[in-house]
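Private note to self, pasted from the team thread so I don't lose it. Backbone tokens:
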């Protein structure tokens, strides 16, 4: 399983791929998008119930309209996931936010 240290260092799409959690999806445009992993891959890697995760797990960005990009946000998950697994998932989501910001540049 991936370590907290690896997650804290991840800040690019390539870094996310190196985590070997699963296929990285990347959809960035002037109308928002997202970067991350499929929920099924995350569930398998972290040994959690897939129904407690969103279908895509990582970072997203909303579009406000009129050419305005909204905020970049991290995925959330069910509060039934606790302890170390929750900490790792939160850090994975943060790594995806960093990767989104870097890819956008």
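Design output:
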């Amino acid at each position: 399983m991936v370590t907290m240290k690896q997650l804290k260092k991840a800040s690019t799409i390539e870094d996310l791929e190196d985590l070997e959690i699963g296929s990285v999806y990347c959809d960035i445009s002037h109308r928002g998008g997202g970067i991350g992993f499929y929920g099924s891959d995350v569930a398998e890697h972290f040994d959690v119930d897939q129904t407690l995760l969103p279908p895509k797990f990582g970072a997203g960005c909303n579009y406000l309209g009129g050419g305005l990009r909204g905020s970049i946000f991290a995925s959330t998950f069910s509060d039934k996931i606790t302890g170390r697994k929750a900490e790792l998932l939160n850090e994975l989501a943060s790594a995806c936010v960093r990767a989104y910001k870097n890819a956008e540049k």
